[in-house]
């Protein structure tokens, strides 16, 4: 018998500009998480997601590809999950097997700013611990997300 | 200012009563080191769901620190597949395609030469799987660092309803812990 799944866990809508949004006490009862971001930033930023308060950038190696309307490119580095701009931006981030304790945590992000860029990112947290909290913020820790921006977290059962 | 969402999950644990239009059909988790393919039988869901989605984390036992092709076939057929792909390698983007293929490049997954625990992830969407008037389309986004970020558009040039979906490893076998889950969404 199929099992109902894909459940909304929480949505945060910012009432004022905010530097970081944290989801904590995430239960381990789902297989995957889906994080949906929609809004704007105070300046164009690279966005990050930190698991379990681990803010060591090197623990989040990534690959990504982007297109800006005329050029396609790919780069790699640490701890850049998505880009957010001062105009409408969005990201959908799949966090796979987040509660497994035998796997690093692989995430896949599709993100875009309709005015300037589209991208996809594969990123890994090099840790086998179950994810129990996550924080979304500017990689450089200097920008804010604007009032009205929404951050939604979903759980997917398997 | 920092905003937190604290303690809000207590009412959303598994096992509660939810209605849903996106439902888990089956999960297969590989044990041992000899599984070369997993097959999902969806023949009984044609009237229940409109679309299918497969979510996975996968790794091969083959000692290679790079990406491997996750091969997909429908209904046991070995003909009529076509695909386009974009690959972000970390330095360049490459594009490739194939027609009249014997399988789909349904995704990409990790070789076994990486650090233990390093799997690649992916999400594959299969549209209108039960239609008997349309060729079958799918798309996937997969990858991990060291593997590539991989975006694929696939086609099975066949109007038969999909009754099964098989995902086959590229080289040796799937590593224990490799996980495939298939979901149905109503429409």
Content-based structural category of chain B: mainly beta
Largest sheet of chain A, described in full? 8 strands, antiparallel
Give the termini separation of chain A. Answer: 13 Å
Radius of gyration of chain A: 15 Å
Q: What's the overall geometry of chain A?
A: globular
Low-confidence stretches of chain B: 6-17
Q: What is the β-strand count of chain A? A: 13
Given the structure, what is the number of helices of chain A?
Answer: 0
CATH class call of chain A: Mainly Beta
List the secondary-structure elements of chain B in sequence, H or E: EEEEEEEEEEEEE
CATH fold category name of chain A? Jelly Rolls
Number of strands of chain B: 13
Query: In this structure, how is the largest beta sheet of chain B organized?
Result: 8 strands, antiparallel
Assembly state of the chains shown: heterodimer
| Helix share bin of chain B | under 10%
Content of β-strand of chain A: over 45%
Low-pLDDT segments, ≥5 res of chain A:
none
User: In the CATH classification, which architecture of chain A applies?
Assistant: Sandwich
Give the chain pair forming the largest contact, with residue counts: A-B, 61 and 59 residues
Percentage of residues in strands of chain B: over 45%
């Amino acid at each position: 018998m199929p099992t109902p799944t894909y459940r909304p866990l929480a949505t945060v809508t910012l009432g004022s500009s905010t530097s970081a949004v944290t989801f904590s006490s995430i239960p381990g009862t789902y297989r995957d998480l889906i994080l949906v971001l929609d809004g704007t930033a105070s300046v164009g930023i690279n966005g990050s997601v930190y698991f379990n308060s681990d803010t060591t950038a090197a623990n989040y190696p990534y690959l990504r590809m982007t297109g800006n309307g005329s050029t396609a490119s790919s780069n790699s580095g640490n701890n850049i999950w998505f880009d957010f701009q001062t105009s409408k931006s969005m990201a959908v981030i799949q966090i796979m097997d987040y509660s497994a304790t035998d796997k690093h945590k692989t995430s896949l992000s599709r993100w875009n700013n309709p005015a300037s860029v589209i991208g996809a990112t594969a990123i890994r947290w090099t840790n086998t611990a179950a994810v129990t909290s996550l924080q979304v913020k500017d990689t450089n820790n200097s920008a804010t997300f604007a009032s009205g921006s929404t951050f939604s977290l979903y759980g997917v059962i398997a | 200012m920092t905003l937190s969402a604290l303690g809000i999950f207590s009412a959303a644990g598994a096992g509660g009563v939810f209605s849903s239009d996106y439902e888990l059909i089956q999960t297969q988790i590989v044990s041992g080191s000899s599984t070369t393919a997993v097959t999902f039988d969806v023949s009984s869901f044609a009237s229940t769901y409109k679309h299918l989605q497969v979510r996975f984390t996968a790794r091969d036992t083959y000692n290679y620190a790079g990406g491997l092709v996750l091969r997909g076939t429908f209904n046991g057929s070995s003909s009529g597949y076509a695909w386009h792909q974009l690959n972000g390698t970390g330095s360049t983007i490459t594009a490739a395609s194939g027609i009249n293929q014997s399988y789909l490049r349904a995704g990409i997954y990790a070789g076994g030469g990486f650090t233990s625990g390093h799997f690649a992830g992916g999400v594959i969407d299969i549209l209108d799987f039960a239609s008997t008037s349309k060729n079958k389309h799918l798309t996937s986004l997969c990858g991990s660092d060291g593997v590539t970020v991989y975006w694929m558009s696939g086609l099975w040039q066949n109007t038969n309803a999909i009754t099964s979906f098989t995902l086959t490893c590229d080289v040796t076998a799937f590593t224990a812990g490799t996980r495939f889950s298939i979901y149905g969404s109503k429409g």
